[in-house]
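Re: the 394-residue chain
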Amino acid sequence: MVDLSTEIAGIELRNPVIAAAGPPTKDGEAMVKAAAGGAGGLIAKTISIEAAAVPRPSMAALDRGEVLSYTTLALNSRLTRITKANTTIVRGMLNAELWSDIPYSQWLEKEYKIAKGTGLPLIASIGYTGEELSTIGPLVEEAGVDGIEFSLHYLGFDYRPILDTARALRDAVEVPIFAKVSPHIMNLTEFAKELERLGVNGIVAINSLGPCLHIDIETGKPVVGGEGGYGWLSGPAIKPLAVRCVADIARAVDIPVIGVGGITSGQDAVEHIMAGASAVQICTGAILEGPSIFGRVSREIGRFLEEHGYRSVDDIRGVALEHLPEEPLRTQAVPAYVDEDLCKACGLCVKPCIYGAVEGGTEEVKARIDRDKCYGCGLCITICPERAISFEAH
Protein backbone atom coordinates (compact mmCIF):
# COMPACT_ATOMS: atom_id res chain seq x y z
CA MET A 1 0.00 0.00 0.00
CA VAL A 2 1.49 3.34 -1.08
CA ASP A 3 1.28 6.47 1.04
CA LEU A 4 -0.41 9.35 -0.81
CA SER A 5 -0.33 11.78 2.07
CA THR A 6 1.83 14.85 1.75
CA GLU A 7 2.57 18.07 3.60
CA ILE A 8 3.00 21.66 2.45
CA ALA A 9 4.24 24.28 4.89
CA GLY A 10 2.91 22.29 7.84
CA ILE A 11 -0.49 21.64 6.23
CA GLU A 12 -1.22 17.90 6.09
CA LEU A 13 -3.03 16.59 2.99
CA ARG A 14 -4.56 13.13 2.65
CA ASN A 15 -3.42 13.11 -0.97
CA PRO A 16 -1.57 15.63 -3.15
CA VAL A 17 -4.53 16.59 -5.36
CA ILE A 18 -6.02 19.96 -4.37
CA ALA A 19 -9.13 21.67 -5.72
CA ALA A 20 -7.81 24.93 -7.22
CA ALA A 21 -9.36 28.36 -6.78
CA GLY A 22 -11.97 28.86 -9.49
CA PRO A 23 -15.46 27.79 -10.54
CA PRO A 24 -15.13 24.32 -8.94
CA THR A 25 -14.64 26.03 -5.54
CA LYS A 26 -17.03 28.91 -6.15
CA ASP A 27 -18.76 28.56 -2.77
CA GLY A 28 -18.98 26.33 0.27
CA GLU A 29 -21.27 23.74 -1.29
CA ALA A 30 -19.01 23.41 -4.32
CA MET A 31 -16.09 22.67 -2.00
CA VAL A 32 -18.15 20.04 -0.18
CA LYS A 33 -18.58 18.32 -3.57
CA ALA A 34 -14.84 18.60 -4.26
CA ALA A 35 -14.11 16.96 -0.90
CA ALA A 36 -16.60 14.16 -1.62
CA GLY A 37 -14.96 13.74 -5.03
CA GLY A 38 -11.65 12.89 -3.38
CA ALA A 39 -9.69 16.16 -3.14
CA GLY A 40 -6.85 16.23 -0.64
CA GLY A 41 -7.30 19.93 0.11
CA LEU A 42 -9.38 22.94 -0.90
CA ILE A 43 -8.51 26.37 -2.27
CA ALA A 44 -11.54 28.64 -2.12
CA LYS A 45 -12.27 30.91 -5.06
CA THR A 46 -10.39 34.21 -4.89
CA ILE A 47 -12.07 37.05 -3.06
CA SER A 48 -11.28 40.76 -2.99
CA ILE A 49 -12.61 43.95 -1.40
CA GLU A 50 -15.26 44.32 -4.08
CA ALA A 51 -17.24 41.41 -5.50
CA ALA A 52 -16.43 40.83 -9.17
CA ALA A 53 -18.72 41.76 -12.04
CA VAL A 54 -17.94 38.73 -14.21
CA PRO A 55 -18.30 39.27 -17.98
CA ARG A 56 -20.44 36.75 -19.86
CA PRO A 57 -19.90 34.45 -21.65
CA SER A 58 -17.06 33.66 -19.27
CA MET A 59 -15.78 30.24 -20.43
CA ALA A 60 -15.20 28.51 -23.74
CA ALA A 61 -13.75 25.15 -24.76
CA LEU A 62 -11.07 25.04 -27.45
CA ASP A 63 -10.78 22.19 -29.98
CA ARG A 64 -13.67 20.32 -28.42
CA GLY A 65 -14.24 16.64 -29.23
CA GLU A 66 -16.37 13.80 -27.99
CA VAL A 67 -15.09 10.44 -26.78
CA LEU A 68 -17.96 8.11 -27.61
CA SER A 69 -16.47 4.88 -26.31
CA TYR A 70 -13.78 3.56 -23.99
CA THR A 71 -10.64 4.54 -25.83
CA THR A 72 -7.18 6.05 -25.62
CA LEU A 73 -6.67 9.73 -26.30
CA ALA A 74 -3.93 11.50 -28.26
CA LEU A 75 -2.45 8.36 -29.81
CA ASN A 76 -0.34 7.80 -26.72
CA SER A 77 -1.57 5.72 -23.80
CA ARG A 78 1.10 7.27 -21.58
CA LEU A 79 -0.45 10.72 -21.87
CA THR A 80 -4.15 10.45 -21.07
CA ARG A 81 -6.55 7.58 -20.67
CA ILE A 82 -10.26 8.22 -21.10
CA THR A 83 -12.17 5.63 -19.12
CA LYS A 84 -15.64 7.14 -19.25
CA ALA A 85 -17.91 7.03 -22.27
CA ASN A 86 -19.28 10.24 -23.78
CA THR A 87 -16.64 12.41 -22.11
CA THR A 88 -15.99 15.88 -23.53
CA ILE A 89 -12.30 16.45 -24.19
CA VAL A 90 -10.60 19.74 -24.97
CA ARG A 91 -7.04 20.84 -25.57
CA GLY A 92 -7.62 24.05 -23.68
CA MET A 93 -10.11 26.54 -22.30
CA LEU A 94 -10.41 30.28 -22.44
CA ASN A 95 -11.97 32.09 -19.52
CA ALA A 96 -12.92 35.65 -18.78
CA GLU A 97 -13.59 34.71 -15.16
CA LEU A 98 -12.59 37.13 -12.45
CA TRP A 99 -12.49 36.71 -8.69
CA SER A 100 -15.61 35.72 -6.75
CA ASP A 101 -18.85 37.57 -7.38
CA ILE A 102 -19.87 36.74 -3.80
CA PRO A 103 -19.17 39.56 -1.29
CA TYR A 104 -16.25 38.76 0.98
CA SER A 105 -18.50 39.20 4.02
CA GLN A 106 -20.54 36.19 2.89
CA TRP A 107 -17.38 34.15 2.56
CA LEU A 108 -16.38 35.07 6.11
CA GLU A 109 -19.80 34.42 7.58
CA LYS A 110 -20.92 31.35 5.60
CA GLU A 111 -18.88 29.83 2.78
CA TYR A 112 -15.62 29.12 4.67
CA LYS A 113 -17.60 27.51 7.51
CA ILE A 114 -19.31 25.13 5.08
CA ALA A 115 -15.97 24.20 3.51
CA LYS A 116 -14.33 23.68 6.89
CA GLY A 117 -17.06 21.20 7.72
CA THR A 118 -15.46 18.75 5.27
CA GLY A 119 -12.49 18.31 7.60
CA LEU A 120 -10.06 18.99 4.75
CA PRO A 121 -7.42 21.72 4.92
CA LEU A 122 -8.90 24.96 3.63
CA ILE A 123 -6.80 27.66 2.02
CA ALA A 124 -8.37 31.01 1.21
CA SER A 125 -7.42 32.82 -2.01
CA ILE A 126 -7.33 36.62 -1.92
CA GLY A 127 -6.28 39.49 -4.18
CA TYR A 128 -4.91 41.74 -5.41
CA THR A 129 -3.13 44.88 -4.20
CA GLY A 130 -1.07 45.18 -1.04
CA GLU A 131 -3.76 47.33 0.57
CA GLU A 132 -6.45 44.78 -0.27
CA LEU A 133 -4.39 41.86 1.03
CA SER A 134 -3.51 43.58 4.30
CA THR A 135 -7.22 44.30 4.83
CA ILE A 136 -8.70 40.93 3.85
CA GLY A 137 -5.84 38.71 5.06
CA PRO A 138 -6.46 39.10 8.81
CA LEU A 139 -10.20 38.62 8.28
CA VAL A 140 -9.86 35.26 6.54
CA GLU A 141 -7.20 34.20 9.05
CA GLU A 142 -9.67 34.94 11.84
CA ALA A 143 -12.26 32.86 9.96
CA GLY A 144 -10.06 29.84 10.63
CA VAL A 145 -8.48 29.02 7.28
CA ASP A 146 -5.31 26.92 7.29
CA GLY A 147 -3.45 29.14 4.86
CA ILE A 148 -3.81 31.92 2.31
CA GLU A 149 -3.03 31.83 -1.39
CA PHE A 150 -2.60 35.25 -2.96
CA SER A 151 -2.98 35.64 -6.68
CA LEU A 152 -0.57 37.84 -8.62
CA HIS A 153 -2.52 37.46 -11.85
CA TYR A 154 -3.40 41.08 -12.58
CA LEU A 155 -0.33 42.83 -11.23
CA GLY A 156 1.92 43.14 -14.27
CA PHE A 157 5.10 41.68 -15.76
CA ASP A 158 7.80 43.23 -13.58
CA TYR A 159 8.00 41.31 -10.31
CA ARG A 160 9.64 44.04 -8.21
CA PRO A 161 6.48 46.05 -7.42
CA ILE A 162 4.70 42.76 -6.64
CA LEU A 163 7.10 42.12 -3.77
CA ASP A 164 5.41 44.92 -1.85
CA THR A 165 2.14 43.04 -2.24
CA ALA A 166 3.67 39.86 -0.82
CA ARG A 167 5.29 41.80 2.01
CA ALA A 168 1.98 43.44 2.94
CA LEU A 169 0.29 40.07 3.39
CA ARG A 170 3.23 38.50 5.22
CA ASP A 171 3.22 41.38 7.70
CA ALA A 172 -0.55 41.08 8.21
CA VAL A 173 -1.03 37.37 8.98
CA GLU A 174 0.60 34.44 10.78
CA VAL A 175 -0.79 31.51 8.76
CA PRO A 176 1.22 30.05 5.86
CA ILE A 177 0.93 32.08 2.66
CA PHE A 178 1.34 30.86 -0.91
CA ALA A 179 2.06 33.05 -3.93
CA LYS A 180 0.31 31.98 -7.15
CA VAL A 181 2.54 33.20 -9.95
CA SER A 182 1.82 33.86 -13.60
CA PRO A 183 4.09 32.51 -16.36
CA HIS A 184 4.57 35.95 -17.92
CA ILE A 185 6.47 37.28 -14.89
CA MET A 186 9.97 38.22 -16.00
CA ASN A 187 12.90 36.55 -14.18
CA LEU A 188 10.63 33.99 -12.55
CA THR A 189 13.37 32.20 -10.59
CA GLU A 190 14.71 35.44 -9.12
CA PHE A 191 11.16 36.39 -8.21
CA ALA A 192 10.73 33.03 -6.45
CA LYS A 193 13.90 33.60 -4.45
CA GLU A 194 12.70 37.05 -3.39
CA LEU A 195 9.35 35.60 -2.30
CA GLU A 196 11.17 32.99 -0.21
CA ARG A 197 13.29 35.71 1.45
CA LEU A 198 10.13 37.63 2.32
CA GLY A 199 8.76 34.66 4.23
CA VAL A 200 6.32 33.27 1.67
CA ASN A 201 5.76 29.62 2.61
CA GLY A 202 5.15 28.15 -0.83
CA ILE A 203 4.75 29.00 -4.51
CA VAL A 204 1.91 27.91 -6.77
CA ALA A 205 2.81 27.67 -10.46
CA ILE A 206 1.15 28.59 -12.72
CA ASN A 207 -1.82 30.81 -13.28
CA SER A 208 -3.59 30.84 -16.64
CA LEU A 209 -1.85 32.31 -19.69
CA GLY A 210 -2.88 35.33 -21.67
CA PRO A 211 -4.65 37.36 -22.60
CA CYS A 212 -5.68 35.26 -25.61
CA LEU A 213 -8.30 35.59 -28.32
CA HIS A 214 -10.45 32.94 -30.00
CA ILE A 215 -12.91 33.76 -32.79
CA ASP A 216 -16.00 31.79 -33.79
CA ILE A 217 -15.52 31.77 -37.56
CA GLU A 218 -19.24 31.20 -38.20
CA THR A 219 -20.14 34.51 -36.55
CA GLY A 220 -16.87 36.45 -36.57
CA LYS A 221 -17.34 37.11 -32.87
CA PRO A 222 -15.07 36.28 -29.92
CA VAL A 223 -16.22 33.29 -27.87
CA VAL A 224 -15.88 34.95 -24.47
CA GLY A 225 -17.21 38.26 -23.29
CA GLY A 226 -14.19 39.80 -21.64
CA GLU A 227 -12.85 43.23 -22.58
CA GLY A 228 -11.61 43.05 -26.16
CA GLY A 229 -13.03 39.53 -26.37
CA TYR A 230 -9.95 38.37 -24.50
CA GLY A 231 -9.71 35.39 -22.21
CA TRP A 232 -7.08 33.43 -20.31
CA LEU A 233 -5.83 30.05 -21.49
CA SER A 234 -5.87 26.99 -19.22
CA GLY A 235 -6.08 23.22 -19.58
CA PRO A 236 -3.84 20.64 -21.29
CA ALA A 237 -2.40 23.21 -23.71
CA ILE A 238 -0.44 24.95 -20.93
CA LYS A 239 0.88 21.86 -19.13
CA PRO A 240 4.41 21.88 -20.65
CA LEU A 241 4.79 25.54 -19.69
CA ALA A 242 3.52 24.84 -16.18
CA VAL A 243 5.91 21.90 -15.70
CA ARG A 244 8.84 24.03 -16.87
CA CYS A 245 7.94 26.77 -14.39
CA VAL A 246 7.58 24.22 -11.58
CA ALA A 247 11.04 22.81 -12.37
CA ASP A 248 12.66 26.25 -12.56
CA ILE A 249 11.17 27.33 -9.24
CA ALA A 250 11.88 24.03 -7.50
CA ARG A 251 15.57 24.34 -8.40
CA ALA A 252 15.69 27.92 -7.13
CA VAL A 253 14.02 27.70 -3.70
CA ASP A 254 13.67 25.39 -0.71
CA ILE A 255 10.01 26.15 0.03
CA PRO A 256 7.28 23.87 -1.42
CA VAL A 257 6.07 24.30 -4.98
CA ILE A 258 2.49 23.41 -5.90
CA GLY A 259 2.01 22.56 -9.58
CA VAL A 260 -1.09 23.62 -11.49
CA GLY A 261 -1.77 23.70 -15.20
CA GLY A 262 -3.14 21.07 -17.57
CA ILE A 263 -3.59 18.24 -15.08
CA THR A 264 -6.29 15.82 -16.22
CA SER A 265 -4.73 12.49 -15.24
CA GLY A 266 -2.48 10.84 -12.70
CA GLN A 267 0.27 10.84 -15.31
CA ASP A 268 0.03 14.63 -15.58
CA ALA A 269 0.21 14.97 -11.81
CA VAL A 270 3.22 12.65 -11.61
CA GLU A 271 4.98 14.79 -14.21
CA HIS A 272 4.48 17.90 -12.08
CA ILE A 273 5.69 16.07 -8.97
CA MET A 274 8.76 14.70 -10.75
CA ALA A 275 9.52 18.32 -11.75
CA GLY A 276 9.58 19.23 -8.06
CA ALA A 277 5.98 19.86 -6.99
CA SER A 278 4.94 18.82 -3.48
CA ALA A 279 1.26 18.82 -4.47
CA VAL A 280 -0.89 19.71 -7.47
CA GLN A 281 -4.06 21.69 -8.11
CA ILE A 282 -6.83 21.05 -10.65
CA CYS A 283 -9.32 23.60 -11.97
CA THR A 284 -10.11 23.20 -15.70
CA GLY A 285 -10.25 19.41 -15.46
CA ALA A 286 -12.78 19.70 -12.63
CA ILE A 287 -14.93 22.08 -14.68
CA LEU A 288 -15.10 19.56 -17.53
CA GLU A 289 -15.29 16.30 -15.61
CA GLY A 290 -16.77 17.32 -12.29
CA PRO A 291 -15.44 16.80 -8.76
CA SER A 292 -14.83 13.08 -9.27
CA ILE A 293 -11.61 14.04 -11.09
CA PHE A 294 -9.86 14.69 -7.78
CA GLY A 295 -10.29 11.12 -6.57
CA ARG A 296 -9.57 9.63 -9.99
CA VAL A 297 -6.29 11.50 -10.37
CA SER A 298 -5.30 10.58 -6.81
CA ARG A 299 -6.00 6.89 -7.48
CA GLU A 300 -4.03 7.04 -10.72
CA ILE A 301 -1.06 8.52 -8.85
CA GLY A 302 -1.32 5.65 -6.37
CA ARG A 303 -1.40 3.04 -9.14
CA PHE A 304 1.63 4.60 -10.81
CA LEU A 305 3.60 4.56 -7.57
CA GLU A 306 2.64 0.96 -6.84
CA GLU A 307 3.37 -0.28 -10.36
CA HIS A 308 6.81 1.34 -10.33
CA GLY A 309 7.82 0.19 -6.86
CA TYR A 310 7.56 3.54 -5.08
CA ARG A 311 6.21 3.80 -1.55
CA SER A 312 5.14 7.43 -1.40
CA VAL A 313 4.88 10.72 -3.26
CA ASP A 314 8.16 11.75 -1.63
CA ASP A 315 9.96 9.02 -3.58
CA ILE A 316 9.31 10.71 -6.92
CA ARG A 317 9.38 14.38 -5.96
CA GLY A 318 11.97 16.20 -8.05
CA VAL A 319 13.49 13.06 -9.58
CA ALA A 320 13.47 14.66 -13.05
CA LEU A 321 15.53 17.66 -11.99
CA GLU A 322 18.85 15.81 -12.12
CA HIS A 323 18.14 14.82 -15.72
CA LEU A 324 17.62 18.34 -17.07
CA PRO A 325 20.78 19.06 -19.07
CA GLU A 326 22.50 22.42 -18.83
CA GLU A 327 23.66 22.03 -22.45
CA PRO A 328 21.90 20.38 -25.41
CA LEU A 329 21.80 16.62 -24.91
CA ARG A 330 23.45 16.00 -28.28
CA THR A 331 23.65 17.53 -31.74
CA GLN A 332 24.32 14.38 -33.75
CA ALA A 333 21.77 11.82 -34.89
CA VAL A 334 21.27 8.67 -32.85
CA PRO A 335 18.93 6.37 -34.78
CA ALA A 336 15.82 5.00 -33.11
CA TYR A 337 15.16 1.27 -32.74
CA VAL A 338 11.96 -0.76 -32.87
CA ASP A 339 11.29 -3.60 -30.44
CA GLU A 340 9.41 -6.02 -32.69
CA ASP A 341 8.00 -7.87 -29.70
CA LEU A 342 6.19 -4.72 -28.61
CA CYS A 343 5.29 -3.29 -32.02
CA LYS A 344 1.62 -3.81 -32.97
CA ALA A 345 2.07 -2.64 -36.58
CA CYS A 346 -0.44 0.18 -36.03
CA GLY A 347 1.36 2.51 -38.43
CA LEU A 348 1.02 5.62 -36.28
CA CYS A 349 4.77 6.25 -36.47
CA VAL A 350 5.06 6.15 -40.27
CA LYS A 351 3.25 9.21 -41.62
CA PRO A 352 4.72 11.81 -39.18
CA CYS A 353 8.31 10.89 -40.12
CA ILE A 354 9.28 13.73 -42.46
CA TYR A 355 12.64 12.01 -43.13
CA GLY A 356 11.04 8.87 -44.55
CA ALA A 357 12.98 6.74 -42.09
CA VAL A 358 10.06 4.72 -40.70
CA GLU A 359 8.83 1.89 -42.90
CA GLY A 360 6.18 -0.82 -42.54
CA GLY A 361 3.77 -0.49 -39.66
CA THR A 362 0.81 -1.75 -41.67
CA GLU A 363 -1.26 -4.90 -41.20
CA GLU A 364 1.17 -7.59 -40.01
CA VAL A 365 4.34 -5.73 -41.06
CA LYS A 366 6.25 -4.44 -38.08
CA ALA A 367 7.66 -0.92 -38.17
CA ARG A 368 11.32 -0.63 -39.11
CA ILE A 369 13.78 2.29 -38.88
CA ASP A 370 16.14 3.04 -41.77
CA ARG A 371 19.25 4.00 -39.79
CA ASP A 372 20.75 5.92 -42.72
CA LYS A 373 17.69 8.17 -43.02
CA CYS A 374 16.85 8.56 -39.31
CA TYR A 375 17.51 12.11 -38.08
CA GLY A 376 17.15 11.10 -34.45
CA CYS A 377 14.41 13.68 -33.82
CA GLY A 378 12.51 11.38 -31.44
CA LEU A 379 8.98 12.13 -32.68
CA CYS A 380 8.18 8.49 -33.41
CA ILE A 381 9.22 7.55 -29.88
CA THR A 382 6.70 9.92 -28.33
CA ILE A 383 3.93 8.90 -30.74
CA CYS A 384 4.22 5.12 -30.24
CA PRO A 385 1.46 4.01 -27.81
CA GLU A 386 3.27 0.76 -26.96
CA ARG A 387 6.72 2.21 -26.11
CA ALA A 388 8.07 -0.05 -28.86
CA ILE A 389 10.44 2.62 -30.23
CA SER A 390 13.39 4.01 -28.33
CA PHE A 391 16.95 5.25 -28.69
CA GLU A 392 18.16 2.10 -26.92
CA ALA A 393 19.01 -1.05 -28.87
CA HIS A 394 17.01 -4.10 -27.74
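Residues 325-394 form a domain with the Alpha-Beta Plaits fold (CATH 3.30.70.20).
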